[in-house]
Design goal:
By secondary structure, this protein is of the alpha/beta class. Helix content is 40%, strand content 17%.
């Protein structure tokens, strides 16, 4: 198939988890023989932090603005077998309306932020998706599974909603034994609603046991946060350093945004990446997590600082390593980028190629 993806970014992983997801997906689609073109808005904050300016798979084009997109890439969109628009694309509503007006093939929306998207729609402040677009896209590919899929179809009118979780590239994420640099680490962009759990599950343990070593990596954390001396801060870890970063941790922490906890069934890409490295994960709780990794066997759950400290103090090395190994085995069997590419191709094949253009009255 000729597939066009309009996504937030594939060239820069700075401050977002979209790039690594798209890189794995596009790379595996290309490996299957599909012709993939990725269209990305050229914005200054990604231009200054491009860690993969020329992806080696498919074709990547940057466009300046909506006019540039419409003028240069209309034939590409018209002729594609499938056009996929991603969440958080700048001017995403206008982009989506343009795609539905001109695409002759299958159309899909890939929401890597489904609970956040739906909360924004409820508040009327989502600038990349509208209720009309939900009804207009033939396929809603959701970062979130579970009951959210029924909500999208039954209550919001999506013709078909399917789960397409994030994934990882096994060529990039794997165990690499080395001396442990940190007892517990966390990789993630700052989020106000996630910060209380980071405080409870990492910063408080660091205050209570200052002899241990901790790390938090990610951008946008405010200067007002009081970092304990035992917490090493890094503003950004590029994807080619993720494997080493995870493998230097005895345990890694997974904390989840409020909207995603409420929705459940919303694994982050970092969950799969860390598991692929064989590093035991300590996570907060949310519905559906047990369907991805078995608590106590493949992942450890914590609600309090004391539970986190209990894992750090009490788990012997054999048990710790076994939990990490079982998690790696599980994600290798179910959650690689190759799995997602095959799932996507199957989903697109089930959608009829022709669709009616989106008219002004439908908007």
């Amino acid at each position: 198939m000729d597939i066009v993806i309009l996504g937030l970014s594939i060239t820069s992983s700075w401050g977002n988890g979209h790039a690594t997801t798209f890189r794995g997906l596009v790379g595996e689609l290309a490996a299957l023989g599909h012709r993939v073109t990725f269209l990305e808005r050229d914005v200054p904050w990604y231009a200054a932090h491009r860690d993969l300016p020329h992806p080696p798979y498919g074709r990547t084009w940057l466009y300046r603005d909506l006019t540039d997109l419409r003028v240069r890439f209309r034939p590409l969109v018209e002729q594609a077998d499938a056009v996929i628009v991603g969440s958080y694309v700048p001017d995403g509503i206008e982009v989506g309306e343009w795609v539905l007006e001109h695409a002759r093939g299958r159309t899909a929306f890939y929401d890597i932020d489904t609970p956040v998207t739906l909360a924004a729609l409820t508040r009327g402040v989502c600038d990349y998706l509208s209720p009309a677009l939900i009804r207009g896209y033939q396929l809603y590919l959701s970062f979130t599974g579970g009951p959210t899929l029924q909500h999208l179809e039954r209550d919001l009118g999506a013709p078909e909603a399917r789960a397409l979780y994030c994934s990882f590239d096994p060529a990039l994420y794997y165990p690499q034994p080395q001396p442990a640099r940190w007892d517990l680490g966390y990789l993630g962009t700052y989020s106000p609603d996630r910060q209380p759990r980071l405080e409870s599950l990492l910063l408080e343990p660091a205050r209570r046991e200052p002899a241990r070593r901790f790390t938090v990596a990610g951008p946008m954390y405010p200067d007002t946060i009081g970092w304990p001396d035992s917490v090493e801060r890094r503003e950004h870890v590029p994807p080619d350093e993720h494997r080493a970063f995870y493998n230097q941790q005895r345990f890694t922490l997974n904390v989840t945004r409020d909207d995603m906890i409420r929705a459940g069934w919303s694994p982050s890409v970092r969950l799969f990446e860390a598991a692929a490295c064989g590093v035991p994960i300590i996570s907060d709780r949310w519905p559906g997590l047990e369907e991805l990794l078995e608590p106590g066997q493949e992942i450890l759950l914590a609600d309090t600082s004391e539970q986190v400290l209990g894992y750090l103090r009490d788990l012997d090395e054999a048990t710790r390593e076994a939990i990490g190994a079982r998690a790696r085995e599980r994600v290798m069997a179910e959650h690689t980028a190759a799995h997602r590419a095959q799932q996507l191709v199957g989903m697109l094949a089930d959608v009829p190629r022709q669709q009616l253009p989106m008219t002004g009255t439908q908007r």
